[in-house]
Amino acid sequence: MKVRFWGVRGSIPVPGPRTNRYGGNTSCVAVRSPGGTDVVLDAGTGLRKLGQELMQRGFGEGKGEAHLLISHTHWDHIQGLPFFAPLHKAGNQFCVYARERAGTPLRSVIATQYDDPYFAVPFDAVKADVDFRELGDGARFELGDVRVSSARLNHPWIATAYRLDSGPASSPASMVYATDTAPFRDILFGEAVAAPPASGAALPAVDVARLGELRASLIDLCRGAQVLVHDAQFTDAEYRERPHWGHSTPDDAIDIALAAGVKTLVLFHHAPERGDDELDLVLAAARARAAGSGLEVLAAHEGLEFDLAERA
Amino acid sequence: MRVTFHGVRGSIPAPGPETNRYGGNTSCVSVRGAGGELVILDMGTGLVGLGKELMAQEFGRGAGAATVLLSHAHWDHIQGFPFFAPAFVPGNSFRVHGMARSSSLLEGILEGQMNPSYSPISSLRNLGATIELVAVTTGMPFDLGGGISVCAALNPHGSTAALAFRIEQAGRSVVYAPDVGYPDGGPSAEVLALYRGADLLIHDCTYTPADRAERRTRGYSSYADAADAAARAGVAQLAMFHYDQDYGDDVVDELARACRAELDHRGATACTLTAAREGMTLEV
Ligand SMILES: [Zn+2]
Ligand SMILES: [Zn+2]
Ligand SMILES: [Zn+2]
Fold it and tell me: In chain B, what residues touch A274 (CB-CB under 8 Å)?
């Protein structure tokens, strides 16, 4: 599987010279399997540039097909969709996947983004074929030669981690995309508004147990994967200030990667305020922390590309 | 009045080295009145940087107040709002004037942006600051205090419309007209009256004339449309604004040269031309 990062930021796009090297676009990662299956992980503003590239391939002639796996529908994970050129070309086929929500059909969540007064072109006017699939927690399914499995993450409104497996048993390729998530210790997030935990108050035992289950299911999902792309938005100090925002630190990401025996960890969903030089320091500190464990640590940047076949 | 540009881009933020000079943030302009009054024009991603600056002042202590004039609610004009730090500080107050049939409909539009499907904020009620919403009536001037008066007119913008605002204080005038695609005859008489003789006209300049011709239904201006409106309204200065997300800095340099020629060609040789860029301040 070939992987390319088109947007690596969390929260909001951040243009400007301070983000030239890592990039300022919000979350979007493209994966292409050996059998030619196109999978797109999240649809932040990075999707716009991916769309321009896809238009140079079959998508420009209306012969493209891709699957969009959405971690959750917070703006930074869907805001690129209205500017995704292949959607506006008849003949292209897309399927959008995200977690099911009681009372809010996925199609209407996505379509509202296009509605008056927010956008000029209603979703009904999109020319490509677009299907929607709502997923239960832990859903598993196949997309061509790609096997998808998933796990629930710990984030306000709940996000989903996806694992992609492909290739023959002799040279399997595997990658997990796990953003956005808080570590599994201070708050159990659900679909209600998250408040900061009361200081000094112990978590209810049921929450502690549920968090333990969620952590175990994420580690199971990541078990033996070649690459784990994981939320690493916060520094330790930022996490202590905003545990209710639902994001992890690089140390939290390393803990999951080590527990699951992952080969390579890619730090992802960088904080909007973090400039390139600061991200260099975040990466250096994470590498120092992982030193001697055998875990390779990278920091995602726009244009980062690798072939999992070459990392086996 | 002191006018500062915080975001000059249209449609969607455009990060990358190719937009470093003019900036990749979406629409946001601030106007400081002579008495320190603050008026914010649109809330694109440029608002985030403005918010950080404001936190160093009275807004950081919950003692700030500002007026927001919202041209319309397309994403590139509101997407900075959930990340505007002063909105989270109790004690600050914002009065948002926007385009809707009623203030409750305007509230619904901004509430929709915060809906839990899309944002962990979930509701405007979770913002600490006081947010008051006011539906604008075009052609009816309103006062912001400090001797500042505002008047709005409606411009055609593709399948919808967008407000243009004229802000006046002590005989000086700034007009903000983003997102407009005029019909063949150019601006309406009402809109020309709003622009007339302005000290500064900030005008949509999304496209080259060729791109505009190809994407006419989107409802944006070319630099030629901007020059034409400026010349006809006899403004003293034109600021080009709301560049297409795919235009790099070199393209915008080109637009500015071509726009100058269009102004001269129309006899508006006395009109000063500025290509707005992030961080630029103009004294009016
Ligand atoms: Zn996010
Ligand atoms: Zn999120
Ligand atoms: Zn716009």
Answer: none
Question: With an 8 Å Cβ cutoff, is A228 touching chain B?
Answer: no
Burial class (CB in 10 A: 0-12, 13-18, 19+), A299: buried
Please say if the pLDDT value at position A200 is more than 70. no
Question: How far is residue A266 from each of residues A145, A179, A296, B267, measured CA to CA in Å?
Answer: 24, 11, 9, 58
Mean pLDDT for B20-29 is: 98
Cα A23 vs. chain centroid, distance in angstroms?
16
> What element of type H or E holds B53?
helix B46-55
Query: Ligand 1 center to residue A223 CA distance, Å?
Result: 24
Question: Residue B268: pLDDT band by 50, 70, 90 thresholds?
Answer: very high
CATH number at residue A234: 3.60.15.10
Structural domain span for residue B78 = 2-283
Number of structural domains found in chain B: 1
Asked if residue B235 lies in contact with residue B200, where contact means CB atoms within 8 angstroms, the answer is yes
Give the total number of structural domains in chain A: 1
**Partners of A130 in beta bridges:** A94
User: Which residues 88-127 in chain B show a CB within 8 A of chain A?
Assistant: 99-100, 109, 112-113, 116-120, 122-123, 126
DSSP, res A244: G
Q: Could you tell me the residue range of the domain that residue A28 belongs to?
A: 2-311
CB atoms within 10 A of CB B9: 29
pTM above 0.90, yes or no: yes
Ligand closest in space to the Cα of B75:
3
Per-residue pLDDT, averaged over A202-222, amounts to 96
Q: Is B30 on the interface with A (CB under 8 A)?
A: no
Q: A143, A35, A146, A130: which is closest to A92 by C-alpha?
A: A130
Measured between CA atoms, the residue of chain B closest to residue A104 is B117
The tokens describing B4, both together, are 């500062």
Q: Smallest Cα–Cα separation from B242: which of B284, B180, B184?
A: B180
CATH number at B267 reads 3.60.15.10
Residue A25 contacts B, CB cutoff 8 Å: yes
A194 pLDDT band (50/70/90 cuts)? low
B11 touching A (Cβ < 8 Å): yes
Report the candidate in B135, B171, B132, B133 with the shortest Cα–Cα distance to residue B152. Answer: B135
Interface ipTM: 0.96
Closest approach of B168 to chain A, Cα-based (Å): 28
Of A11, A13, A74, the CB nearest to B15: A13
Ramachandran bin of A42, using left for φ above 0, alpha for ψ from -120 to 50, beta for the remaining angles: left
Closest by CA position to B176, among listed B142, B150, B140: B150
Ligand nearest A233 Cα, by number?
Answer: 1
**Share above pLDDT 70 across residues of chain B, in percent, rounded to a whole number:** 100
B20 at A interface, C-beta within 8 A: yes
What would the mean pLDDT of B123-151 be, rounded to a whole number? 96
| Residues A50 and A6 sit within 8 Å (Cβ to Cβ) | yes
